[in-house]
């Protein structure tokens, strides 16, 4: 850490205490309980419970609804991450090039960060409201039979669109600051050597942005896993028939609305394992600082 | 830099289209929120504002009946403000203190405590909502501001941010301060905190927005209408849109949406530079 440090005293304990106490009460305890509960089976009235080893996990992993939700989460996360990264990279490259109005464009493209996911969800689903939603009416008018209330693919399209819309601004901010970190001498030398802007992008800019892109990939996957809860809860609510329920949404539905504690806890633990892998992956990468 | 006219033109076209893509939904929501529900029902969503701005917004802000609960939008805005500020202040104080201890002291449990703090990054609140809810309920903290804010603070993003920053502070400062006889508390309050002002501001802005936009936790925690935040209020109004066989209350839902978005968007736009700096630095 630091070369120079304070010696032994009670001060550091007092300073970490607030954080550790809050973590212990509101993090460690609930997390331990989730793990504990995932091994228990409660009776129908919640009066008694028995230890059932991995039965809850077996139930979850063999449950077609969970597998469907897991599959949807994978597809959804991949689509959201790839699309929002591609769109914002495209916009950031252009925004980095313009001279006139650069500040205005930047502001116009970044404010979306401040919009709450459920707000985005509500705005989106209103656009697709069968009674009056302009997008719904437009898509049907150009001859596509679009019905997100009954068709799973159409519903997926709606939630992906909303989730991408919400995430473009964050990625845009990171890409733009990444682009501005590229030394001017590099871009100027590249411009002298190569007139095609597109080739310059793929051979110079994109490789230089690789660390940012990789990092954003992780951020976006975490976003698609967790923060899209608000979007889904306000837009499709997992409809039709659970086709757009992410794993987090399913934990909520089963645990809170369905009161299946053991099953919901087992789902939580499985999710914890998945996120842990993602986070460790991210940290290994950041510690190594893949820079050129 | 060399740039063809064509490239420059397409740049502007693409950026304008991108901006429209971002702004259109919010603009339509705003324009539609200024019409009567009958008008919207007959003519669909609107692109041009109507003449019922004050009527619609006034009703929602001050008349509890209008939001379908027993709470006015003004109260919900206040609750969101408490959550946003409480979350941001709590997080800044707690994580600065913890980061100070970790960076500037050699103490016995430093390494295990660091890992405990680190572990919170692995498990977002979303995966442990059910047991978290039980814990808060056992502590009798349901429907309180404390129960709303404290569990959200139990994550280490801020601590890592300050840890990173403190490590970049030159060691000579501490040496000089110690020569002048400053103890750990003095050094923290008189030197480190003033040095961190811009960092504090940056993280404060981000945390305020994050706190304001919380959804899942307040949704579970608050069953008392008086504690609804504006983001939760939106869902309540949306859920009751079609109730009672009346014409749906779209303008109200839109007005609430707009009101929920204005404060965080303003904060982000006004403090843009600080916000971007904070965001890019924290996530690293």
UniProtKB/TrEMBL annotation, chain A:
What is the species listed in this Swiss-Prot or TrEMBL entry?
Answer: Thalassospira profundimaris
Membrane-crossing segments per the record: 12-32, 70-93, 105-128, 155-179, 200-226, 266-286
User: Keyword Transmembrane: yes or no?
Assistant: yes
Q: Which InterPro entries match?
A: MetI-like, MetI-like_sf, UgpAE/MalFG_permease
**Task performed by this protein:** Part of the ABC transporter complex UgpBAEC involved in sn-glycerol-3-phosphate (G3P) import. Probably responsible for the translocation of the substrate across the membrane.
Identify this protein by name.
sn-glycerol-3-phosphate transport system permease protein UgpA
Q: How does it assemble?
A: The complex is composed of two ATP-binding proteins (UgpC), two transmembrane proteins (UgpA and UgpE) and a solute-binding protein (UgpB).
Major subcellular location class:
membrane
Positions of the ABC transmembrane type-1 domain: 70-282
Q: Which PROSITE patterns match?
A: ABC_TM1
- Say which family it is in: Belongs to the binding-protein-dependent transport system permease family.
What GO terms fall under cellular component here?
plasma membrane
Automatic annotation (TrEMBL), chain B:
Endpoints of the signal sequence:
none
Would the keyword Transmembrane be found if you checked this record's keyword annotation? yes
Instruction: Give the principal location in a single coarse category.
Output: membrane
Membrane topology per the entry is:
Multi-pass membrane protein
For this chain, the family text in UniProt reads: Belongs to the binding-protein-dependent transport system permease family.
Q: Describe its assembly.
A: The complex is composed of two ATP-binding proteins (UgpC), two transmembrane proteins (UgpA and UgpE) and a solute-binding protein (UgpB).
| Name assigned to this protein | sn-glycerol-3-phosphate transport system permease protein UgpE
State the organism named in the record. Answer: Thalassospira profundimaris
């Amino acid at each position: 850490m630091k070369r120079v440090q304070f010696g032994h005293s009670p001060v550091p304990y007092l300073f970490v205490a607030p954080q550790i106490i809050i973590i212990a009460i509101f993090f460690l305890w609930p997390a331990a309980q989730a793990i504990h509960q995932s091994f228990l089976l409660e009776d129908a009235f919640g009066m008694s419970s028995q230890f059932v080893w991995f039965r809850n996990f077996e139930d979850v992993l063999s449950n077609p609804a969970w597998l469907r939700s897991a599959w949807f989460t994978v597809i959804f996360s991949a689509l959201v991450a790839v699309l929002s990264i591609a769109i914002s990279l495209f916009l950031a490259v252009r925004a980095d090039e313009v001279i006139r109005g650069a500040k205005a464009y930047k502001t116009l493209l970044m404010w979306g960060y401040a919009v709450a996911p459920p707000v985005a969800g509500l705005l989106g689903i209103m656009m697709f409201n069968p009674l009056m939603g302009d997008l719904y009416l437009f898509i049907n008018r150009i001859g596509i039979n679009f019905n997100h209330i009954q068709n799973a693919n159409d519903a997926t399209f709606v939630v992906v669109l909303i989730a991408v819309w919400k995430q473009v601004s964050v990625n845009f901010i990171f890409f733009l600051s990444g682009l501005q970190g590229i030394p001017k001498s590099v871009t100027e030398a590249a411009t002298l050597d190569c007139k095609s802007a597109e080739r310059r992008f793929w051979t110079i800019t994109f490789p230089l942005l690789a660390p940012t892109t990789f990092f954003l990939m992780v951020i976006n996957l975490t976003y698609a896993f967790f923060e899209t809860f608000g979007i889904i809860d306000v837009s499709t609510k997992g409809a039709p028939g659970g086709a757009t329920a992410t794993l987090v949404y399913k934990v909520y539905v089963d645990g809170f609305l369905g009161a299946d504690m053991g099953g919901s806890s087992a789902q939580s633990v499985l999710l914890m394992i998945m996120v842990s892998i993602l986070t460790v992956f991210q940290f290994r990468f950041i510690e190594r600082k893949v820079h050129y | 830099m060399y740039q063809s006219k064509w490239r420059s033109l397409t740049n502007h076209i693409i950026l304008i289209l991108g901006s429209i893509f971002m702004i259109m939904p919010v603009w339509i929501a705003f324009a539609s929120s200024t019409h009567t529900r009958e008008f919207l029902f007959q003519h669909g969503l609107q692109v041009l504002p109507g003449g019922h701005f004050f009527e619609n917004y006034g009703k929602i802000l001050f008349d509890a009946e209008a939001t379908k609960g027993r709470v006015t939008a003004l109260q919900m805005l206040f609750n969101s403000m408490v959550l946003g500020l409480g979350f941001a202040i709590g997080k800044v104080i707690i994580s600065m203190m913890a980061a100070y201890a970790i960076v500037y002291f050699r103490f016995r449990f430093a390494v295990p405590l660091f890992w405990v703090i680190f572990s919170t990054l692995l498990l977002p609140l979303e995966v442990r909502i059910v047991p978290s809810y039980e814990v808060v309920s056992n502590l009798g903290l349901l429907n309180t501001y404390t129960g709303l804010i404290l569990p959200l603070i139990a994550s280490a993003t801020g601590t890592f941010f300050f840890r990173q920053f403190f490590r970049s502070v030159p060691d000579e400062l501490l040496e000089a301060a110690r020569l002048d006889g400053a103890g750990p508390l003095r050094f923290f309050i008189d030197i480190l905190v003033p040095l961190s002002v811009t960092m504090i501001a940056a993280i404060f802005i981000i945390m305020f927005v994050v706190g304001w936009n919380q959804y899942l936790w307040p949704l579970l925690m608050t069953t008392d209408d008086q504690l609804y935040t504006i983001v939760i209020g939106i869902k309540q109004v949306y859920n009751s849109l079609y109730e009672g066989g009346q014409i749906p209350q779209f303008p109200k839902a839109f007005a609430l949406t707009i009101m929920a978005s204005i404060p965080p968007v303003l904060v982000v736009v006004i403090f843009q530079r600080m916000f971007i700096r904070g965001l890019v630095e924290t996530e690293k």
